[in-house]
Structure formats: structure tokens, C-alpha cells
TrEMBL record:
It catalyses: a D-alpha-amino acid + O2 + H2O = a 2-oxocarboxylate + H2O2 + NH4(+). This is D-amino-acid oxidase. The keyword Oxidoreductase applies. GO terms for biological process: D-amino acid catabolic process. Belongs to the DAMOX/DASOX family. Its main location: other.
């Protein structure tokens, strides 16, 4: 039997865990997941636990993001159908459009709100809403079946699948990406590092991707259940504020959001924004509360703030050789810049990572 290739996956968010799980299906790889934050942690640096999370495609046609989203849907649907222990369920979803909306949120949702969206042929039950089906103030809309993910169940489920396949997990903090080669559980240098560090790639020596930037998000998690998911193309409260309602599987509560505040790093909850979020959610989905009631009828579990790892130019999934401080070349595969769409691109990105790892290690073997 050929010796195993030693691989370190740096980062334990949804992108890193999905990549590690997919790689672990190949027994020629000996894999360590090394990360500062692990599932169960809640920190503004660690984006994945704060996500809704769901499948609302935003990748423009012909882009890598579209391919990743297209390739991720079958995997999420299969988990919802066949693996309830993963914490994913199907949800009826309503998407509303207002002609007047401009700014970062409406730009982000530009593909999502199209009545001829490419994903209309991917997700089940896609239809254009009639005028009679639209709430007051909406100019158009669609509905389809999506999924919503209980991140508190799903992230540990991904860990469990990795562990079952022999992946080793360890805490680790690096300064330079070359430091990750010393984190393999064998005690030997890793042959390759998969970089899934999100926003840390902005600062990590050897990478320092200046196209990375944060987009602050704020949510309210409540026990109320409207019975469906909904979002709109914008709000009247500012072009970087949004309204979305996502009901997580398996008792995970309902996420009310939100905002898309570029280059904002602050972790404190803004109480005024929280009030606006709750009011907008009830206005869009009145079934959240008893008839005639307002935000006082919302049963709040907690407030949360997270930083989406955005990237100018979109997701970066590529391989390169990086020179370490001692002059040696380090084989690296990047999977970063997943913004607010990490879950809905996760399986597609993981497949791309597998291909790049294979190419990189084959190239190394020829040298």
C-alpha cells in the first residue's frame, strides 16, 4: 500500500469541515483538522455557528459560485431526506422583490430575486407568485422548496463523519501558513495545507489576501415559528439592512435578520438594530406572533453578531506553492471568501478542493 499523503485542513467552519469530510473518503489521505475555533465555540471570528443557515442561491450565472451552489443542492437535499441526524429540513420559502430597493443587500440578492433565476430548474416547486399572492408593497416574488440547517447540530455532525473516517482534530493557532505543516497529528510535516481560515486569511502571513473583508451581520434567535422562510430585496431602514426569517431544523429556533455592514468589525449587539429586525420580521411574516401582537410577543433565545468572510472577486478556490520563512515551498489549496453563502456552496467547494488537492499532490510526486 502506498504511503498516505499527510494533509492539514486549517479551519473548522462549514467549508473546512466539508472539505475534510470529502477528502477523508479517500484512504490515501491522512488528515488533521487544525483550528483556533471548533464547533461548540461562539466567537465573532468564527462565522459558521451564526449562520441561518439555508439555501438561497445568489451566484450569478456562469460564475464559480453558481457552479458551487448548483453542486451543493443535491447533497443538502439528500441529507434532509435521508439523514435527519444532520439537522437539516425542507422549508417552504418566499422571496419578495421591490423595484425601489438599491444598495448592497439588493445587489447581493440580485440573482435570488429573479423570476427566471437559473436555480428555478434546481430546487423543487419553483414558481412565480401572482399579484394576489404578494404582500402589500411588493412588486414581485417567487416561492420554492429550500432547506434550513440547525448549525448547532450540523457542524458537530460533520465532525462526527470526519472522525468516523479517521480524521484527527486538534486546536492550533498559526502566524504563518507554513506553521500549519507542523500541526499534522503524525508529528511529521504535512505534504499539503488546505486553507479554510475565512477572514483570518486577511492577516495570516504567507497569504494576506487583501481582497478579504468583513460584512457584519446581526440576528435575533427566537422560539416563534412562522411555518416558512421569507426574505425581501431590501428594507426602508437603510440599504445595508435586510429582512429574512429562517426556521432551523430540530428545535433550533427561528433566525430573524439582519444586515450586511461592510468593513464593520464591532461585535456588540446594536439594540436599535435588533428592534428594527424584529419589527421588520413581524411585518413580513405576521404569523410569527398572535394576531395584533408586536415584538413583545417574540420569545427571544439570544441576540448574535457574526462577521461574514466576504471577498472582492468572489470565492477563492485555487492551489499555489507558498514560500515558508525557511525558504521551503509549501503546497496550499485555498477555499476562502465564502461570504454569507458558505453552507450553500460548501459541497461544491469541497469537490473543487478535492480536485485541486489531487492535482497538487500529483505535481509534488513528479518533482
Amino acid at each position: 500500500m502506498a504511503p498516505q499523503h499527510k494533509v492539514v485542513v486549517l479551519g473548522a467552519g462549514v467549508s473546512g469541515l466539508t472539505a475534510a469530510f470529502t477528502l477523508s473518503k479517500n484512504k490515501n489521505y491522512s488528515i488533521t483538522v487544525a483550528a483556533k475555533h471548533m464547533p461548540g465555540d461562539y466567537d465573532i471570528e468564527y462565522a459558521s455557528p451564526w449562520a441561518g443557515a439555508n439555501y438561497l442561491p445568489v451566484g450569478k450565472e456562469g460564475t464559480p459560485s453558481q457552479e458551487y451552489e448548483r453542486n451543493t443542492w443535491p447533497e443538502l437535499a439528500k441529507l434532509a431526506e435521508q439523514h435527519p441526524e444532520a439537522g437539516i429540513h425542507f422549508q417552504d420559502t418566499l422571496i419578495y422583490r421591490r423595484e425601489k430597493d438599491k444598495g448592497p443587500v439588493s445587489e447581493w440578492f440580485a440573482e435570488l430575486i429573479r423570476e427566471d433565476a437559473w436555480f428555478s430548474k434546481v430546487v423543487p416547486n419553483f414558481k412565480v407568485l401572482s399579484k394576489e399572492e404578494l404582500p402589500e408593497g411588493m412588486d414581485g416574488g417567487t416561492s420554492f422548496t429550500s432547506v434550513c440547517i440547525n448549525t448547532a447540530i450540523y457542524l458537530p455532525w460533520l465532525v462526527s463523519q470526519c472522525l468516523k473516517n479517521g480524521v484527527i482534530f486538534k486546536r492550533g493557532v498559526v502566524k504563518h501558513i507554513a506553521d500549519a505543516t507542523s500541526l499534522h497529528h503524525s508529528g511529521q510535516k504535512a505534504d499539503l495545507v488546505v486553507n479554510c481560515t475565512g477572514l483570518f486569511s486577511l492577516f495570516m502571513e504567507g497569504v494576506q489576501d487583501k481582497n478579504m473583508y468583513p460584512a457584519r451581520g446581526q440576528i435575533v434567535l427566537v422560539r416563534n415559528d412562522p411555518g416558512y422562510m421569507a426574505t425581501t430585496s431590501g428594507t426602508d431602514d437603510g440599504d445595508d439592512e435586510a429582512v429574512y426569517i429562517m426556521h432551523r431544523a430540530a428545535g433550533g429556533g427561528c433566525i430573524l435578520g439582519g444586515c450586511l455592514q461592510a468593513d464593520r468589525w464591532d461585535s456588540a449587539v446594536d439594540p436599535n438594530l435588533a428592534t428594527r429586525i424584529m419589527k421588520r420580521a413581524i411585518a413580513l411574516t405576521p404569523s410569527l406572533v398572535p394576531e395584533g401582537k408586536g415584538i413583545e410577543a417574540l420569545d427571544i433565545i439570544r441576540h448574535g453578531v457574526g462577521l461574514r468572510p466576504m471577498r472582492k472577486g468572489g470565492i477563492r478556490t485555487e492551489r499555489e506553492t507558498i514560500k515558508s520563512p525557511d525558504g521551503n515551498g509549501i503546497k496550499v489549496v485555498h477555499s476562502i471568501g465564502h461570504g454569507g453563502y458558505g453552507y450553500q456552496t460548501s459541497w461544491g467547494c469541497a469537490a473543487a478542493v478535492v480536485k485541486l488537492v489531487e492535482e497538487s499532490l500529483a505535481e509534488r510526486a513528479r518533482l
